[in-house]
Amino acid sequence: MTEHDGIRDPILVTAREHLEEVAGEIHRTGRVAVDIESNSFYVHREKTCLVQISTKDADYIVDPLAVRDMSSLGPMFSDPATQIVFHAGEYDIACLKRDYAFTFCALFDTMIASRLLGFKELGLAAAIERHFGVKLSKKLQRADWGRRPLTDAQIRYAQLDTHYLLRLADIQTGLLRGKGLEAEAAEAFAKLARSAPIERIFDPEGFWRLARGLNPDGRQLAVLRELYLLREREAESRNRATFRVMPDEVLPRLAMALPHDFGSLRAVRGMTPYLLDNYGSAVLAAVKRGLAGPPIHPDSREKPKKRDPRAGRLFEKLRLWRKSKGQQTGVDPVDLMPTADLKAIARLALSGGDPLVPLSLLKRSRYGAEILKICRGR
To answer: What pTM did the predictor assign?
Structure first.
């Protein structure tokens, strides 16, 4: 079966008045599937470029670049009586919170459910093929969703991201109930609803990451920092993704080579004609600034604090317990208890605090006694 068989065309929403009209209709269904497309792969300041919504009877594609005012969807998202179904919704929810200040209440996430149910392939296409025998193309996954007009292929692709989600959630709800995992799922969905909006924060010390595996001297590190800051400024001013201004691997090559003119700049691997034409002069100026300033000592980067070896040993015991418990229950160990929680438990146990503080009431009641036994037997 192809992804087009028997599916009606979606309803395109490109005006505020139209969105206000359909938002109430969608809300009254009491249950919707949602997905978004963004342009994060192409720009420095990403934004939500498409919102797909499916009810049991229709598929809608809302164009936020045309509608602008998306507030009429807010009551639906925040209504505890309306279930909102996502697949891998953490990013989508964070974008919707950031761009429109939406709040969320009653969520279901089909990827979280897939993890709890022990499925190895967690992508949407895998879930749709597994349960419906339909193969979805993912060719447009990296499309530039900020460009207009959208093609017919993009519209169909976007529609299919939500078209099957409600039926998939129905199937998974039954499977979760059969395995006694409804409480775990509800806890995970509630946590998802509380997830924070995306906030892009530039790290001015990020140039150290690019120096890994190299042995730069102080001058080369100073140049690398200047190149790293230059790329960020260019990406922001042009609103382009940083790797589309200049790939990560080119910056350390430039810093190690210390080019002084266009001839030596051209010899650096990865300096394409496009990069030379658009950034050549700026790169040479950045190299000059780095060499003129004070060198950066290779050992001056703040070292992470030394870990207590006892915490490492306790964490390993907890990790083995989690693995065993996951095998017993058929739940992915990380879904059973996040690694960050295990590390926090180990730290608290060694510092004399309550090691169960990181756990929810559900996890305390189910696993608290076992965890305390491990911590006390260290």
So the answer is: 0.88
